Every structure is written in structure tokens, then in C-alpha cells.
Amino acid sequence: MNIAVDAMGGDYAPDAIVQGALSAYAELGVNVTLVGDQNLIWKQIREQGRLGNGIQIRHCSQVVAMHESPVKVLRQKKDASISVAFELARKGEAEAVVSAGNSGASVGAAILALGRIGGVERPALAAIFPGAKGAVVLIDVGANVDTKPKQLFEFGIMGDIFARSLLNIDNPKVGLLNIGEEGSKGNEKVKIAHELCRNGPFNFVGNVEGRDIFSGDSHVIISDGFVGNVALKLCEGMAEAIGIMFQREISHNLISKLGFWLSRKAVKNIERNLDYAEYGGALLLGIKGVGIICHGSSSPKAIKNAIRTAHNFVKNHVRERLEEGLAIAQSNGNQTN
Questions:
Q1: Which residue range is the domain that position 68 belongs to?
Q2: Which of 81, 159, 166, 325 has the most crowded Cβ, counting Cβ within 10 A?
Q3: pLDDT digits (tens, 9 = 90+) for 232-268
Q4: Is 334 a member of any domain?
């Protein structure tokens, strides 16, 4: 298996990206093609002092900045690292793509190069959250700002299949993120989506509120990309704030320090569960291929784990299962305009 990695995407590219890719190859044995400026990539490899036969470099001359318009980029920068990476996937030279770059350009490049799975109007980003009872999937977390009820319904189908295939959850509970639990709550879009999901081919448990994201009572939570991205960033910021406040509290006195020392293993486990780097990035579901979109400030650890996730996604044939599930939903007449 070969994973194409956008070496120029992200706030700390190419250093953090190359370091993460080298770690993935060394620890996981996954072959990686680093896509970007070969001079900068080679510089980082020499500094790391390690290179294996499973590491390749594909040179390209252009880079996409985080602030650039995705539409403009896709039209004018044909040799941008993210576009070249997805072209490798289209040609069959890579089974998956990982990027921490401009998310809009990454989604656009994926759709342009690979196309959408039949039955999917809009691909969606699925992120994994640490729930009190286990992992929780939130879909969509940023691929689509504006969505239609039918598209939210499609997110539910994809989230259900994702949870079954990658997280090994039997009959996952699927909820719709809303401002209240009652079916009458929310705007018209969410109300219509609620009715579609209620008659859908998955275990729909109704509306869920923002406070329910971490409860684990629902395994999959459907949202439009605007609200989902706000929730994602809010959770990341909250996790960082908790860490800072915790460090401040334990430094107050000797008893606090002793208590921390006695419970340090449990504390480390909690920190690991709250760390987005443990999950690597969000999976772009609904494309005819595999794409992982990472946080712009991804560390080497996050990139390594994103490559791990991409490897597992391919190995577990999640894309093929998505195609099958969506085809069944269409044939049963479950999708309504």
C-alpha cells in the first residue's frame, strides 16, 4: 500500500509533514510518497538522517497557501502539491491521500480528480471524537457550509457505514445535531432531514444536542459543515484549556503534586483521548478514493496517525462498503429530493 502525502500543506510544512511520514514508514511499515518541493523535502530527510525504500518523492513546483481561494487554486495551480497528490490516487499510484493544507482546496482536488460515489451529492468530512462510552463520529465537520436535507440524510448513511467498518460498532446509533431533542425543533432544513432519517436504513435515535457529543449515547452525529466545524474547533480549544488549567492547579501545592503523581497514568490516558493528534485527521467520505484532511497545525504525531487511519480505511474496504450501502439505499427508494 502506498499513501500520497501533501508535504507542503499545513502551518509547519514541510518539516512536520516529512517527520510524520518518516515515522509512519518506520513504525507502521506504510509506503509513502511525499509530494512537494523536492529540495525542501530532501533537506528535512537529511536532517532526520533516515530514508527507506518505501519513501518516494514526487516533485511539484506550486504550493497552496491556507488563505487562497480553492476555486482559484484548482484553476490556476495545476502543479500544486495537493492536486498532484490526488492525481497520483486517480492514476492508481497511491491508495490514499493525506493533507494538512487548505481544506477547501483539498476537498475540491479530491472531487475533481476522483469524483463522487454514486448517490452522493456532497462528500463530507467525518471526525472521530472521544466519547464517554467510546468513539463518536461527527459528520460533517467542514466540507460543506450549506447543505440540503437530502445531503444530511446521505451523511447519516455514510456515518453509519463508517462506524460499522472502521470502528467495528454493530448497529450504531445515529443522531441529528439540533437545538433540542424534539422533532419539531430546529430550522426547516433540519426538520425535513429528521423525517428522512427517521425512515432511513440506519438506527436513527432522533435529535441530539451539543452536550451529547461527548456522552457516547450516539455513535454517529449528523451535522452540516458549518455547525460541525464550530463544534470541532470548540472541542479542540476546550481540551487545550483543560490541560492548561489542570497544570496550573497541580502546581499550587505539594498535596496537589502528590495527587497528580499517584494518578499520572489515568491523567495521561485522558490527555491522549482528548488529543486530536491521536486521530490524525478527518476522513473525506463520499469520494471514489480515500482522503484524510488534517488540522492545519498538525504535528508529526498527527501526520503519522493520519497515515495510520488512511491505511486502516483502505485495508477495511470502507469506500467499497460506502458504495454498496448507498446503492442499496437508492434501490430501496430511501432518498428523496
A1: 1-120+286-317
A2: 81
A3: 888 778 777 877 777 777 777 777 676 666 666 666 6
A4: no
